[in-house]
Specification:
The chain has six helices and six strands; from the N terminus they run βααβαββαββαα. It is an alpha+beta fold. A hairpin with a 2-residue loop joins strand 3 and strand 4.
């Protein structure tokens, strides 16, 4: 099992290694995160579909998201009461895509596309792989928006090269 601490996000300038700006990727995905009334597994599935459709390599990860601050509380008796089973995506170069940590951990939790920077929350990876694909009409129902018509991801650098 691998662990990653996080409470802050990496600055947008720290996109070394990825062929696009993570701030642009987050801005592209944020409307979906706001519209879709799904939990972490559903959100990870929706985002994974869009990333695949746009040729962005990633891995689906599942495991525990643990509140390390709560874990240090003497009133808390077990590690299980400090964490939740959770799903997120890994882009490589240390980047995570997670738009649902706040659903379980509150507003202090990280959100969006980021490099875990150490701190209060820790991702404990138990499994990695890919989701089986679902037809876009089912994803549309899950998202409450037409995922099939989602605009392509066009990072600024790609537009400038055209």
């Amino acid at each position: 099992m691998q662990s990653r601490n996080c409470s802050d996000t990496a600055p947008a300038a720290e996109t070394e290694g990825l062929p696009f700006d993570v701030a642009q990727l987050q801005a592209w995905l944020e409307p979906l995160a706001e519209a879709a009334q799904v939990e972490c597994d559903g959100m990870s599935r929706l985002v994974s579909h869009l990333l695949h459709k746009n040729g962005i390599q990633h891995i689906v990860a599942g495991g525990m998201l643990v509140d390390m601050q709560r874990l240090q509380d003497p009133e808390v008796s077990t590690e299980e009461s400090c964490g939740v089973t959770h799903w997120w995506l890994e882009l490589g170069f240390g980047y995570i895509v997670d738009f649902r940590a706040r659903m379980w951990m509150g507003p202090e939790a990280q959100h969006g596309v980021f490099i875990p920077a150490g701190g209060r929350f820790e991702y404990r990876t138990e499994r990695r792989g890919q989701f089986n694909s679902l037809p876009e009409p089912i994803l549309d129902l899950m998202a409450g928006v037409c995922v099939g018509d989602w605009s392509p991801f066009m990072p600024t650098e790609a537009l400038e090269r055209k």
